[in-house]
Design a protein that fits this description.
The structure is a homotetramer. By secondary structure, chain A is of the alpha+beta class. Chain A is built from three helices and six strands; from the N terminus they run H-H-E-E-H-E-E-E-E. Strand 3 of chain A pairs antiparallel with strand 3 of chain B.
Chain lengths: ~150, ~150, ~150, ~150
């Protein structure tokens, strides 16, 4: 595993601040469970209100958590005062998203001045057992100032 | 534009039933605004509770609506008694998802017995003007029986 | 269809120059058949030497032509002296790539100062009939100077 | 790392046979360097005839090798008499593909009766040093008989 050198000594507080600034995370019940330079893990409990027609969590909701995990992992390596936005992501759905709780683990694959690529996996936790439910690769962009 | 021949004469009712069976759609305030064989449009009002840190709708929420639009468009062409699941999708985020309301238009690009590929676009509507905010290509799978 | 305003009045010559600078295009027999601001079409004859195990053109070769079509379409809208590189692309394979000749049509979906998103389709031509064989969405990046 | 149980006791010979049946692999100079159940590595020397305008190997050629690596990794886990085809893949380009030789390592992430998802990475080798140049996630499909 690569070791990354954060450019922002205050990256933990800065990343947590961006995460806390996302109302969608509160709405979906998503929280940070691990945060290192280039690596972030999130957690979300099952909620029937976020299910699709079979009772599994909607693929888009799983993707919302994966995208945020990627964004936060990328953000830990960005310079102070950066803004971050998602350029693109792809999700492969691998198993039904059924479980009591879900874990989302993202890692930076390639940091860059402008673009950062991350990979993330979603796991369903049921009866103490974890199942891989989805995989994402995504591209995040750092905006030094408020323009694109 | 291709004209598609639905295999299920009752495709409108069947597709609406699957959509209505998704609690996530109610939670996010998403509704069907158009439904033809191979083409579906959804609508969602802006909600601050679904925003990311800049007040724009979270890319994952936009993706949730795009994925459902693709799934419903694909489902209109599937035989009666099919079940549908998402195999994969990719979203490119093109403009900030800011607006009073959002529209999601999906079209089947290639129907298939097992796999169907759809394209979908998300538009933000503000002051009577539409802006393209995201584009998805996704693969949906028809399950004839309850196994994969 | 969007009308695009090229920033480089000499965009035709500039784009053709970049295309001609790619040895891979000559190796694969790919040529430009149409070139407008934001839109490019390429053509490639069938070659058994580029086939996979069933005699169809390899998905990666189809992707090579689609990626170049996207890159050239994006490049037509970039300022003079730009360099271009591919950030990412996704290809959905829709039908077997069998035919006498192939056509690749790319369009810019969203131009940008740094990132441009394009869509492209590959068609197989056989006995005067065209079949859609693949669809790509890709992200291209403009480099103003020789750094990333 | 997951351990996979091949369904075809003869998977090595069967996979090698499919690989050898691809003229495109000979044309591009790609060979198998490792082959286990669920894991395949390929190798390709640099060739100026496969370069884009900066002398780096074209992203589509890198993708051709990654797709084949994914296909072969997926095929090792398929039952005897299967046919395989690529459903879709996405490539993120991470660093310029410059080097004396390239290595492509694919792993099955999720095997399935119909669909198998693989991840692959491309590395450039120069002066004894390896650099990650691209990452792919792809979906492969097993066809039990000659129909889709």
């Amino acid at each position: 595993m690569l070791r990354f050198e954060p450019k922002n000594p205050d990256y933990r507080a800065a990343t947590t601040r961006v995460f806390d600034g996302q109302p969608a995370m509160r709405t979906l019940g998503i929280s940070i469970v691990a945060l290192e330079a280039g690596e972030v893990a999130l957690s979300m409990p099952y909620s029937a209100s976020l299910a699709q027609q079979s009772g599994f969590i909607h693929a888009g909701i799983i993707t919302t958590a994966l995208d945020t995990a990627c964004g936060m992992a990328a953000f830990t390596l960005m310079p102070p005062q950066s803004e971050i936005l998602t350029v693109e992501f792809k999700t492969n759905l691998l198993n039904p998203a059924k479980g009591e709780r879900f874990r989302f683990a993202a890692t930076v694959v390639k940091p860059g001045r402008t673009l950062t690529v991350c990979e993330a996996k979603a796991f369903a936790m049921q009866d103490g057992k974890e199942t891989l439910v989805a995989a994402m690769t995504g591209t995040l962009m750092a905006l030094p100032q408020r323009d694109r």
